[in-house]
Design goal:
Structural class: alpha+beta
Strand order of the largest sheet: 1-2-3
Order of helices and strands: HEEE
Shape: elongated
Radius of gyration: 20 Å
Length: 94
């Protein structure tokens, strides 16, 4: 279910605190997170996050166009292998 517009977007406070701490220190190292449901505020722009997809951490660099989306949208949990392969069958002539 989506979040109510009256409440505003959900932003993980620990994650926001880590970003603000990095900005004050002037560092830009990747931040590991499991918070896939966290909305991307303007403060996250220019930072790199390691977002967990259930198996591994995918590196996500946040740009201005990502503001308002969720972190999990950029770390897919499923791998698409294609729609079935076409196999040519050889008819034997006996």
């Amino acid at each position: 279910m989506s979040r109510s517009s009256a409440k505003g977007p959900y932003i993980n406070e620990r994650l926001l605190g880590k970003v603000l701490k990095q900005q004050s220190a002037g560092r830009k190292e990747p931040i590991k997170t499991w918070a896939r449901d966290c909305a991307i505020p303007p403060e996250f722009v220019g930072h790199t996050f390691m977002v967990h997809n259930g198996k591994v951490f995918k590196e996500v660099f946040v740009s201005e166009t990502m503001v308002g989306h969720k972190l999990g949208e950029f770390s897919p949990t499923r791998t698409f292998h294609g729609h079935g392969k076409i196999v040519k069958r050889v008819l034997s002539k006996t």
